[in-house]
Amino acid sequence: MGCGSAKPTLRHSPSAQVVNFRGNQFLVDCGEGVQVGLCRSKVPFGKIGHILLSHLHGDHCLGLVGLISTLGLGQRTGEVVIHGPADTERIFRPLFDYFCPQLSMEVRFAPFDTTRSEVIYDEPTLTIRTVPLHHRVPCSGFLFEEKPRPRHLLVDRCRELEIPVAYYKGITLGLDWTDPESGKVVPNELLTSPGSPSKKYAYCSDTLYAESIVPLIEGADLLYHEATYTHADVVKARQRGHSTALQAAQIAKMAHVGQLVLGHYSAQFLSAEMEQPLLDEARTVFPNTLLANERMVIDV
Fold first, then answer.
1. Which residue from 2, 44, 45, 232 lies 20 to 30 Å from 239 (Cα-Cα)?
2. Can you say whether the dihedral through the CA atoms of 159, 161, 167, 170 is positive or negative?
């Protein structure tokens, strides 16, 4: 819903994305205009249960008060969890108290340490882990990792061995089966085939070029990596704590990711034609690269 950088333009909104995992909506960063982006993308506000803030620069978090206010106006119930750096609650709690009094839902802050990778969400099918980044303020990316899927049951083999249906679920979870009469153990690999590969999505914005993140995002199916500038402006990028398109592609190649999406464009890129050099530069290193755009939907 937003792939621009700090300076406003008519072309792009500030950073914001929604990750939809099996109907669960996770909002990643919350720049100004996020509510308009949600409306245009037809994302139901009420289904957002977790908001992940990479860092506390305005273009990544200043849409938060308005969004929480709107959720309150809609009589949202339950809990909204805001994950962010240590200062997040100190900054936003007074604003919520002033602009969003008597909320119908609970807003809970869940701080994380930006200096190390840690799990901030852990459910039976999904884990979200932070990825320490190197910016001008404490900053983390996020890795969404689907947990291993159950193995596929070889039904005909199970029927042949007269295995009761009650044992099928345990077998798909990796258990062997023991024949109660003979005591013979049938290894799981003879009763199942490997499950579908689990998926990984990595979000990395904003950051200097940092090879330290490579082991953490290794093998991600999709990587969103900031590319504020072309490499002609690498000195400016380094001074401002950002990456170039070429550097983003180098990270993608080293991490063996499936696909790279570039975003967080400098306001100097005023048209699609002016953004094209970012894509061309990245593709010299990592061909499977796309340019992010508002309302883009990518199926991982």
1. 2
2. negative
Distance (Å, whole) CA 252 – CA 257: 6
Residue 179's pLDDT is 87
pLDDT tens per residue across span 112-133: 999 999 999 999 999 999 999 9
Domain boundaries 16-149+196-291, corresponding CATH code = 3.60.15.10
Where do you find CATH 3.60.15.10 in the chain?
A: 16-149+196-291
Whole-model pTM? Answer: 0.91
Instruction: Write out the DSSP string of the chain.
Output: -B-B-SS--SS-PSSEEEEEETTEEEEEEE-TTHHHHHHHTT--GGGEEEEE-S--SHHHHTTHHHHHHHHHHTT--SEEEEEE-TTHHHHHHHHHHHHS-S-SSEEEEEE--TTS--EEEEETTEEEEEEE--SSS--EEEEEEEPPPPPEE-HHHHHHTT--GGGHHHHHTT--EE-TTT--EE-GGGTEEPPPPP-EEEEE-S----GGGHHHHTT-SEEEEE--B-GGGHHHHHHHT--BHHHHHHHHHHTT-SEEEEE-B-TT--SHHHHHHHHHHHHTT-SSEEE--TT-----
Return d(Cα 267, Cα 270) in angstroms, integer. 7
Q: How far is CA 154 from the centre of its chain?
A: 34
Q: Which residue has the tokens 């290193």?
A: 285
